[in-house]
Amino acid sequence: MGPYDAAMAKKLVIKVTAGADAPERCSQAFTVAAVAVASGVEVSLWLTGESSWFALPGRAAEFDLPHAAPLPDLIDSIMSAGRITLCTQCAARRDISEQDVLPGVRIAGAQVFVQEATTDGVQALVY
């Protein structure tokens, strides 16, 4: 797949695997998602691995990266017109249930991710 082109994509699916363990990569994923939403692109952001913790209330506020937009602001921007999904297996491994997550965050599995990522007009990015 070539470089991302917002004018060409109908939808952007982003899987972020990094959290506080790789803060720059994590921040890039949320920033790209927020910018895409602001550009009118339909965005589906998937939280997997260490980024799973950001599905919980208050966790994004603990994330700090100098010269980066605050993660809670990026999440609010993404949720305003996009979707955030927490990986089913990642949630289970961390004992996170649907009652625990931020309002509007769904929990779904690989089948849903594959459906979203393989639809015509979709570009997928992994961070």
Description:
This protein has one domain: DsrEFH-like (Hypothetical Protein Ychn, Chain: A), CATH 3.40.1260.10. Strands 4-3-2-1-5 form a five-stranded parallel sheet. The model has no long low-confidence stretch (mean pLDDT 93). Helix 3 links the parallel strand 3 and strand 4. By secondary structure, the protein is of the alpha/beta class. It has four helices and five strands. The two termini are 15 Å apart. 32% of the residues lie in helices and 20% in strands.
* Helix-strand makeup class: alpha/beta
**CATH structural architecture:** 3-Layer(aba) Sandwich
Number of strands: 5
Beta-strand proportion: 15-25%
Largest sheet entry: 5 strands, parallel
Order of helices and strands: EHEHEHEHE
| Count of helical stretches | 4
Compute the CA-based radius of gyration.
14 Å
CATH topology: Hypothetical Protein Ychn, Chain: A
Identify the CATH homologous superfamily. DsrEFH-like
CATH top level class name: Alpha Beta
Shape: globular
Strand order of the largest sheet: 4-3-2-1-5
Please state the average pLDDT score.
93
- Count of spatially separate domains: 1
Helix content: 25-40%
Q: What is the CA–CA distance across the termini?
A: 15 Å
pLDDT below 50 for ≥5 consecutive residues: which ranges?
none
